[in-house]
Every structure is written in C-alpha cells, then in structure tokens.
Amino acid sequence: MFVLPRSMGLGGLERHLLELLRRLPEPLLPPIVICYDHDFITARMDKDQQARVVVKCVREPQSLRDWLRIIRENNPHIIVFDYSWIEAFPWQASVASLLAGVRKRISIQHLIPPPLPPPVPGKSPRDRLRRLIGRRARQVLKVKISARISGSVSHNTVCVSNAVRDALVKIYRFRARKTVVIYNGVSSSTFVPSKTNGAAVRERLEIDPNEFLLVCSARLDPPKGLDILVHAVSRVVRQGIPCKCIIIGEGPLKAELIRLVNSLGLSFHVFFEGFQQDVRPYLQAASAFILTSHLEGMPISVLEAMACGLPCIVTNVGGSAEIVEDQVTGLVIPPASVEAAADAILYLATNPDKRDEMASKTRETVCESFDIEKKMAELISIISR
Asked: What pLDDT was estimated at residue 38?
C-alpha cells in the first residue's frame, strides 16, 4: 500500500510513483494507492496500469484511530509512505502501521527538509524561557519527534539524494544504517534529442531556429523560485542578448508570475505553456534548461533535460548539484540570486561552443548513472526484501 501526502497536482513524487507502479513484479500486485480527497493518479495511468492498481481516496486522517482504521481496512503486507516534505505525515501514521502489524514499513523522502527556525536570541530570563518552551521550541520539538518516530518505525527510509539523507541523519537523527540513497532515474530511450520535434515548437511560438531558448519545467509555487528566473531573463534581455524562455507547469503563482512578466516587458520573451503531459518537444526545442529552486530533493525535470542533451543551470540545493557537475554538464549557482542566474544564462547564451561541449556530456551522464530501470530495480528490492 502506497500512501500519498496531500497534493495539488502531478509533481515529481507522483511521477516517481507512476514509474514504480509500472515496474512492480507479480508478487507485489495489486498495489493499493491511498490519496486524500481527489484522485489525480488514475488519469495519468495507462489502461494496463488502471487494471492492475487500486486507487482509493479518503478523507485526511486526523487521529491514530483514523490511521488504524484505514490501514486495517486494506490490510497491507507492505506500506510505503511517500513524503514530499518532512511533516507530510504525522507520527500517528507510522505508529498505526506498527500497531496494525504491517510486516514491512518503508518511507520515501523526496525533498530535503527546510532548515529549522533559529533559536530565540537574548540572555534575559524571558528569552531563555522562550528558548525552552516558546512557540519556536514547541514547533521544533513537534517536527523532530514526529520525524524521529517515523524514522524509528520504518524498516528503511529511502532518500532520493545524499543531501536529503544527510539532513535527516544530522538534523533529525535518523539512524544511518536504516537510511539509504536511491537516486531518481529517467528513461534514456523515452527522452532523447530530436531537432525535428524541437523545430515544431519553435515554429509555433515564432522563435528563431538559432535563437537561445531556455526551458524550465516546474510547479509554479514559491519553492521553485521562478520570480528569480523571470528577473534574470529580464537582465539578459536588457543587455541586448536574444533570449527566450518557456515555462512549463501550473501552480498558485501563475497569475502573479504573468503580471511580473508583463510589468517587465517580457511578454514576447517568456512563454507560459501550462501543464504538459509530454514535455519532450519543449526540451528538444531548447538550448538549455534552468531550475532556480530554493528547495529540492532530486529533480526529475533536470534528468529529463539532460537525457535530451541539454546543459542545465541549477541552484546548489538538495540533489541538484549531485546531478549537474559545474562547468561539465551545466552550471551550479547559489539560490535566490538574480545576478548569478543572469550571469549563468548570459554565459551559455554567448558561448555556444562551451554549451555544445556540456550538451555532449549530459546524456552520457544520465545513461551511465541515472538509468530508471536500474534505480527502480534497487527501490523494488528495498521494498520487497
């Protein structure tokens, strides 16, 4: 049984699960997927998957009793909690799986935990009391206790990058021997370079075949830092460098980002293409890929771009710098820096030879180190052994 956190749509976690479900061997069938309120999984499955997978929507559990009821009703031998953030499930979820007698308990951590809030400064008795029992202290204690219970109850915690694992072990004291890293993967036979497909996208959007084109595939929400990207493109364009950018994805910041683009006079330079079931034509049209995130785990979108032969600009957060080698397969920049993002874009836009050199190595890196069949086989082995 796979338990998903509350979600507003299809993201990296959900796509990772779909790839896993496609490869589950016969002994693990039929899997049950539990999601809250809205079933956004079934529509993304092919007919064969829909026949093999049971998807159930439930009201979000509020207590240990609720969790026990849901788990006992489905009676799984194996339960997998998919974490999109450290607080995605309360401690009651993992404890209920233990009390219900589930034989194998796994958690998959997809996102690096954000830093804990800093302690209250000051030396007065009041400040010291606040450090011990104030709002910040209670918040930190609640998160740490819930996370540690989850880590203790799980037979294994699977992390999608070393950065995620390091944070869990060092900050939240997860047991190192029970915490493993299995990178996300991508199909190098599905994601391939194609000038023909790319030319069709450029023609539709009236982008010159030789014009430098960035693509960003990301959910339009604050952690992705898309305002940084828009401001960086504005700086590049103001310097007279021909540059266009396609943003693929939906999210709560879409209207705000469109207003920002219009206010900066970028309506002919930045294109919002919304959610795309198939992002390949856009990647195949691009000169480079960019992701200006503040938080990440192991972004599948970067792997897909590299498989399509694109150099990538990524921020040094989560596992992004574990995928992209600076100056070899792309550029790694500090997060939240418009200047660094603009400089990176400018460098790739004005150095086509270096860009081509990076592009020649990106696909090779994916094929060697991030093959999805190998990564899913490793994950299935952890789940089923």
From this structure: 84
